[in-house]
Amino acid sequence: MKETLQITLIQPDLIWENALENRKAFTQKINAIHQDVDLVVLPEMFTTGFTMNAAEVAETMKGETMQWLKGVSKTKGCAITGSIIVEENKKYYNRLIFMLPNGEYHTYDKHQLFTLAKEQEVFTAGQKEVIIDYMGWKIKPQICYDLRFPVWARNTSDYDVLLYVASWPKPRINAWDTLLQARAIENMSYCIGVNRVGTDGKGYEYNGHSAVYDVLGNSVIDENSLEKETIVYATLEKSHIHSVREKLAFLEDRDHFKLL
């Protein structure tokens, strides 16, 4: 078990539907990380932007982005995660990949599809809760719109970290800020949110606000310049989780139910 977890958040502008150029840009950013890192987090649909053109840009689980993730994770000696568009069994998924340095990986398919963009007409919703055990830390991954649905995030598994990768637009950024903090507080876990910046191919604007909150909902990162392309570092501490949960045993009073 690792008592601290070193997290690096990459908040990028993305090149619309151009996986090759986005991978090149991320390679440069990741190579520029000179601090110790256990986990690199990229945003939702980090190779394409939030597009519904799945038929044109989807990859397979043996595709170039999967090979890139394996190479980066192995070279950097850390895990790397973010979501991409995957085609599998003639269906499309908004799928988070959590790649490990040894080439093994975990996946999570977005559960709450964004009906405002008609995501449900293109993609198939995931139905499984996923808890990833990494370096003795229990991490629960979620994707963007999942953030608005607290039951799907409820800490019934005593996880340590709730992780959101997103393409959350500027007009609704207040909801992003508020709900990330709320999820940390109500689940008594660290809550990480990684968003993008810039303007996509549909003209939607994004202004970042990537964040890391502790068990009490306090920010643990430098919040300056979080509306532009940036790399953010955070240290998560197991002792913080244990001490707060021992002192304030609110999770013991939670409702008892099982997620699907």
Describe this structure in words.
The protein is of the alpha/beta class. Strands 5-4-3-2-1-13 form a 6-stranded mixed beta sheet. A 5-stranded mixed beta sheet has the order 6-7-8-9-12, covered by helices on one side. A two-stranded antiparallel sheet has the order 10-11. Strand 3 and strand 4 form a beta hairpin. Helix 1 packs parallel to helix 3. The radius of gyration is 17 Å and the shape is globular.
Radius of gyration: 17 Å
DSSP, total strands = 13
In terms of per-residue confidence, which ranges show pLDDT below 50 for 5 or more consecutive residues? none
Indicate the percent of residues in helices: 10-25%
Annotation field: number of helices: 6
Taken in chain order, the helices and strands follow as EHEHHEEEEEHEHEEEEEH
Distance between the termini: 28 Å
- Report the average pLDDT across residues: 96
Q: Helix- and strand-based class?
A: alpha/beta
Quick one: biggest sheet?
Answer: 6 strands, mixed
Strand percentage:
25-35%
* Sheet with most strands: strand arrangement: 5-4-3-2-1-13
Anisotropy-based shape? globular
Give a nutshell description of this structure.
The chain has helices at 19-31, 54-57, 64-76, 150-153, 173-187, 238-247, and strands at 4-11, 39-41, 79-88, 91-99, 105-109, 132-134, 137-143, 161-165, 190-194, 197-199, 205-207, 211-213, 230-237. The protein has 260 residues and is an alpha/beta fold. It has a six-stranded mixed β-sheet.
